[in-house]
Amino acid sequence: MIKAGIIGATGYVGNELLRLLLRHPSVEVSGLRDVDSYEGKGYDSVYANYAEICNIKMTDQDTVIQNADVVFTCLPAGFSERIAINCLESGKMLIDLGSDMRIRDEDVNKEWYGIDRQRQDIIAQTVYSIPELHGQRLKSARIIANPGCYPTTAALALAPAVEQGLVDTKTIIIDSKSGVTGAGKGPTAETQYAEVNEAFRAYKIGQHRHIPEIEQILSDIAGSSVKVTFTPHLLPVNRGILSTVYAGLSSDLSQDELWDVYNDFYKDKRFVRILPQGMAANMKNVKYSNYCDISVHTDRRTGRLIVVSAIDNMVKGAAGQAIQNMNIALGLEESMGLDLIPPTF
Amino acid sequence: MIKAGIIGATGYVGNELLRLLLRHPSVEVSGLRDVDSYEGKGYDSVYANYAEICNIKMTDQDTVIQNADVVFTCLPAGFSERIAINCLESGKMLIDLGSDMRIRDEDVNKEWYGIDRQRQDIIAQTVYSIPELHGQRLKSARIIANPGCYPTTAALALAPAVEQGLVDTKTIIIDSKSGVTGAGKGPTAETQYAEVNEAFRAYKIGQHRHIPEIEQILSDIAGSSVKVTFTPHLLPVNRGILSTVYAGLSSDLSQDELWDVYNDFYKDKRFVRILPQGMAANMKNVKYSNYCDISVHTDRRTGRLIVVSAIDNMVKGAAGQAIQNMNIALGLEESMGLDLIPPTF
Amino acid sequence: MIKAGIIGATGYVGNELLRLLLRHPSVEVSGLRDVDSYEGKGYDSVYANYAEICNIKMTDQDTVIQNADVVFTCLPAGFSERIAINCLESGKMLIDLGSDMRIRDEDVNKEWYGIDRQRQDIIAQTVYSIPELHGQRLKSARIIANPGCYPTTAALALAPAVEQGLVDTKTIIIDSKSGVTGAGKGPTAETQYAEVNEAFRAYKIGQHRHIPEIEQILSDIAGSSVKVTFTPHLLPVNRGILSTVYAGLSSDLSQDELWDVYNDFYKDKRFVRILPQGMAANMKNVKYSNYCDISVHTDRRTGRLIVVSAIDNMVKGAAGQAIQNMNIALGLEESMGLDLIPPTF
Amino acid sequence: MIKAGIIGATGYVGNELLRLLLRHPSVEVSGLRDVDSYEGKGYDSVYANYAEICNIKMTDQDTVIQNADVVFTCLPAGFSERIAINCLESGKMLIDLGSDMRIRDEDVNKEWYGIDRQRQDIIAQTVYSIPELHGQRLKSARIIANPGCYPTTAALALAPAVEQGLVDTKTIIIDSKSGVTGAGKGPTAETQYAEVNEAFRAYKIGQHRHIPEIEQILSDIAGSSVKVTFTPHLLPVNRGILSTVYAGLSSDLSQDELWDVYNDFYKDKRFVRILPQGMAANMKNVKYSNYCDISVHTDRRTGRLIVVSAIDNMVKGAAGQAIQNMNIALGLEESMGLDLIPPTF
Lengths: 345, 345, 345, 345
Fold this sequence. Notes:
homotetramer, 7-stranded mixed β-sheet, 6-stranded parallel β-sheet, 20% strand
């Protein structure tokens, strides 16, 4: 059994990760560290839904690292680099669900996150991985940067077209809509029920920190610098992200041929489902699962490719993808512990 | 592996049952019969969330029965009795999630359901079971009547107090609130989004068909005829039932002692969780799981016991409880396939 | 034009009151005082929905009182008594939407609110008014205590039956369900979107501060001390309260006769609608309006009266009722400024 | 008083129109015609929220036309042309909230709606009007085509930039999100509560019938043919549309200057609110009102203009805009009966 520890276990992402790890057939949860002030308390005293399921007592960070084979960090920006150093020195694998080690370029990272990272060598050793695109990099990874939720939808929607050179990469627009849990657990005026319910709004237009991450992935695939327009919106639902992605077609492939390109690209990928032609992706069909549903459309009148991708932001967008990365890195079956059927409602 | 067939697999309950059976470690789904007109189609062509998960083709009723060890029926009133006869003759176990065989008394059944049942011998052989209350009856059961969702919450909330004679059974009031999936899949004006969203209403006050079922259970426990006031309400949520149950205390046990009675009553029952004193049950904490959460309160000023119970109407209130009944009847671990952690959101 | 000032204008109740007063044909809003730290700012800088509608600058409390004919206070417990003294001395009418002056009995108030009121003479001069029940008291009122939201539903549902002696007042149970805005504007963990959405729970069972208020009203009507069991619940909707009220019938009036009693009792009351027999009250039908919808039911099997009442907690349960009280006290048409049609969705 | 009749009064749009007309100071509702089979019934028997508010009996179409000065039609495609002829002959003004007379070009109309219109002379006399863009056309209008909900948001968001030639009209992408009432009242599987709640999806990608309407408006403004990419999505809310509109900037105006262009363009328009820079439009801030909120953004990194516009689909997107058109056509104050403050929640 692999011993897994979670640092930041009481936030929304840590909470979901714990739920999945507790049912992973090859994992034993060996330690939890809160993000608040719950040290010494049982997990079920913080989350009543875990009553009679998990009463693991929360401890300090060093104990979690010491007792684990794999450490998962689910923390706000700025905390993971030091933990990475600690893990490397202790010979532990680290999977960081935060943003600290996603961006390779130091200047870009500084510009968007405003944080001075201390150890470029740590970043250099870090493997960033959306498993369907970068899984082969994971074989000897010791530090894994788990992707952001929005970039997962954007990259999976665009990778086949960009790789095959089917679209003009200067015309990419990503219009994304996310459920509220993406904002995390802390109570804010903006995430109060009466502010979100029966409401819908855009935010951080052209300024969201996931922009450089999306551009890093796409530039790698394209082999040249790609810039995108990205607009996130807040949906009145608990979970899920749906991204509608637009790009000018630079190819005259037919709708059928484009659809074949997507199917071929993901043909061995268990967690990406290309929808039958004529259907459009729906967030509802992937909830509580690790799937990414993708529908491929062409607007012949205007010469554009439109791709709609949907994930559960907490599973494929965070905790599930982290487990998928762990499974591959450890040589386990990729879908172990992720065999989740999206409920119909 | 136990072969399980579902008749009525495309309704909401059948759909949820399939989801759970597909992940049950000792079950193989051997056949599906729709409730609509999908014969010959794959299940994933009806429910897009099952894409690449279940493409079992739907067949006719006889084929489903023939290929199964256990047949589950998820049908409207009036269809199950004949299937029960068929199953008995073919030596198949039947678990009926419908209402046809829940009420023992023929007159009572006629009065509330308006249906003439043909074979009182079938009803006599049927075992009605909420596992925590009637599990011991299941050992040699061939036909099992799975309880209604509302009665499950009411019976589990009241059983300890009624059995111990702690309340005046003439004073029982059950105020229940259910999510929309309780109404089933068929499109109706009443269950349209804009009718249910931002709305809340009572319905069938004192007239709901679950009343005789609740009274049958409580009368059995009390050893005398019990009548209850029952009011169901429709909540703007997909899943869940919460019942607030009132009864005049006929005992002068303290709040602590009452709480102990409930804890003792359910101490070996994996799926009933008695909440710590001071907490009140929340539907959210049992969603997508087979738990029933119960909180026990006393209103000393008015001499009443107040019990709040919460379940997921689709799991503990239907599909999960059916599997729990099957597990016990077949001598499997009671919780097999039901090891579900309620997600935090 | 009557000059109206609001103290506590940026809370949820103050906000709704402002919305209604701005469209009241005989009122001019003469001053606003925030509950936060917005002094000097325009109202539209706090609430973007008021852009180009209301940019009144918020001032201090004394200025608001000085410039007003009628002062409305929408404040947490403990702040209104001093303002009442100030208003009395300045010859201003005060309508308090808070709880400070609702309970007449000093000991009862102390027990439930934990506050020592200083001036029993102020309380003695205060007129508590649900207009349909106490409107005649308002003629020379200078200080008006506006009722709580839950008590409004409970009192209107029970008044006819209690006044006519049709129910046993020792058997009253009030099961209430409220939208989230009842909890006010301040961000809390409990009112975060993901905590409330797809959730439902009871809270403060037998301990809510509206209990003594309900008992005060019903005891006045009954002419003897009435105690009630009251359970509030939190609904995943923005607005509205629905209360399901139970009481043992002490009369053998038929369902038709009981319905007539309710119709007669409210026959001249514009804002109470007794539903046709066979219908049950729905929160949706009174949203954004000052109506209270009431449906009257009997459960003959158990000898109980069941009354369902529904209001918009922000209008009839707070701001609208305050204006209704003001209108009567000032000799205006009772419905002035309250001519609101509940939208269908 | 102007006598107004509604044909199609029991659909969602007709229902909302009635609500507004009943409070219009210069209008008397003179007749109603259902869309179902309610002839002879009172309106409140169909919609319980109208109890004691409107019991007008529904009559046949000819009676409604005969008794009215202005006839409003809220009907599915294909029914309005004949009514238009009838109104013209009877000297009645017609305001059509349906789609039959929006598209001028017969071939385009046939292509998208599949309907053969009989009388091109009727279409030629019809005035299509978004009041902020076409209000001056209304002076002698007898037949008015009221715009679609999506086109209203798209046109108001783009008109200033297109008119001033600030964007490349070949790069326009409109990503729209609508509440459920846009789909109308008829019960369908797709609009059941459990299908829409906690869900989000795109539909009719590049194929929605509002596309030619958007292109007609923009082509008129641009003075040349404009084609757009348009993707509608279904939001889990009752009301509202938010459109996020993208276009490549062909000008090097600064963000401040662009904002000024929008402010100038709408400076005398009561119902369009350009948000302060730094804010993004939120559907919540215009609910139950006739406002269109617009926020103007530039993405300098990619050279794009991003405009977010939000309306209430039932008010500014349908019934409110129809009244606004009527007011202007009849020489009334444009905002009469539309003086609605969007509630905060």
